[in-house]
Amino acid sequence: MKPAPFDFVRPTTISAASEELARCGGDGKIIAGGQSLMPMINFRLVKPSVLVDINGIADLSQIESSGGRLRLGATVRHYMTATDPLIQERIPILHEAMHHVAHLTVRNRGTFCGSVCHADPAAEMPMMALLLNGQITARSVRGERQIAAADFFQGSLMNSLEPDEFVTSIEIDELSADVGWGFEEFAKRHGDFALACVATTMSIRDGAACGARFAMMGVGETPLRLGSVEALIEGREVTPDLVNEVVELLNDTLRPNTDLHASADYRRHLSGALARRALDVAWRRAARSVEQP
Fold it and tell me: Boundaries of each FAD-binding PCMH-type domain copy (predicted)?
């Protein structure tokens, strides 16, 4: 199909982009990579009156580290995230997750912030924003506000941005050297949306898990950060018995949908299998860091 008619503007400052969105009266859309937005426009699922292209704003293309946090600007491409040496060193789980995102052509144009804003519950970057305590910076003519990733995702393809707001950057936690991590995803083909995915991190203190994080995607209307699983792991050694408890908890609490790709029961089964792998890998990585002099 062809898109409905729209105007196109390319501001060169954040303030100008904010003014353009305000002028649209809630009927404008920001475009950076367009890998999710343009197919929706072509199918007329979205009919903006104006597309506001933010690629001309130089300040939005930076990856910066400060105080144990990493800031990714709104036009940072997936390929930049996948190849940045700072991310490889300090957030290796994000580096791993990025290689599961779609295909090379999509990664060359799509953006980290755009994926988070699109809020697809089966996409990797929204889940990573949750896992890594993401803080979203949103801008409008009214000023700037901070939104925690935990409050950002409202439903499938729904976020908490106001119609005249757009994201300028997202900050996420860096991982200290003693943190072990596990990332396990299952899709029918590489680059397809995942049927289920688990991401987890932890350190080891006195032989027990410390600072455990556990997130999932593909098994709910939003990406999930599962505090109940984290509480179960915290302060305990990750043994087969503990992992069995985690799997039982997931079976009891997850309510995935049945769709043309997989049944709810199959997604629930996958979740348990992936959790076993991810927890085992994260524990072993954390243990290796403890063993190193």
Answer: 1-177
